[in-house]
């Protein structure tokens, strides 16, 4: 196997999600995050969006047989070390993806699966489909995922607890509903930071909010980074801390001159940051 720049064998990661033509979020953000962390990106597109930094104007489904063919093409050829699942607004796609991943010849349980259930974008556009899609995500993805990474509003909707704003209680409800672990992003909008419940213990992930208005793609970047770190063998609480660090820095260093709405994050600048790259190197040294 050809080693990467650090001497490790190539780690291939798969993202299953939808396209953002403005380049900040969706599959495009995932490929950038995988690449920034030195991994090889593979992609299965389930939908197209017409969107930019100000919002989503239109969505279009990739036909189901084409989704199935893409999954088969990648999974029968490339040994993926991590899977990230992003925007899937069609219940049929949710079922198909869950079916293919759980029916793999090589058990995918050995491979971390991070599900980022996108329901509303930072620009305020609904992107997760209707209640049927939410029900399908609950039924098919909660038990499949190593960890799910909803933001606070998405977690409330998935848990069916609209008035509850305590992330610990929402996360516990999601585990009751079948999730193995829940990482609620931006769980404390007043102070910043995330909240991890690993099914047994709660781990607050402290953070500070940056007021740069560069949040477009923060969630996609965060969940992709998390998938890579889990594939590299980090434990979930450590991976959650580091993924937040990278995402928060990507917001801080975001592309303020791109677009007129919520500007895109910059994951490459984040991992180039001396403090972030030192922390990544320290944790990744000695793991696969
Ligand atoms: N303004 C911000 N400043 C610092 N970190 C942020 C900011 N916005 C989001 N993050 C971090 O980025 C990651 C993704 O969070 P979030 O924006 O909630 O995702 P989503 O795009 O799914 O709503 C989390 O780790 C969160 O704490
Ligand atoms: C195609 C597509 N997928 C996901 C998102 C959501 O991206 P996210 O990283 O949560 O950031 P925001 O869009 O909420 O800023 C998306 N917009 N498009």
From TrEMBL:
InterPro entries: HMP/HMP-P_kinase_dom, PM/HMP-P_kinase-1, Ribokinase-like. Residues 20-266 form the Pyridoxamine kinase/Phosphomethylpyrimidine kinase domain. The keyword Endoplasmic reticulum does not apply. Pathway: Cofactor biosynthesis; thiamine diphosphate biosynthesis; 4-amino-2-methyl-5-diphosphomethylpyrimidine from 5-amino-1-(5-phospho-D-ribosyl)imidazole: step 3/3. It catalyses: 4-amino-2-methyl-5-(phosphooxymethyl)pyrimidine + ATP = 4-amino-2-methyl-5-(diphosphooxymethyl)pyrimidine + ADP; 4-amino-5-hydroxymethyl-2-methylpyrimidine + ATP = 4-amino-2-methyl-5-(phosphooxymethyl)pyrimidine + ADP + H(+). It holds the Pfam family Phos_pyr_kin. The keyword Cytoplasm does not apply. GO terms for molecular function: kinase activity. Keywords: Kinase, Thiamine biosynthesis, Transferase. Catalyzes the phosphorylation of hydroxymethylpyrimidine phosphate (HMP-P) to HMP-PP, and of HMP to HMP-P. This is Hydroxymethylpyrimidine/phosphomethylpyrimidine kinase. The lineage of its organism: Bacteria, Bacillati, Actinomycetota, Actinomycetes, Pseudonocardiales.
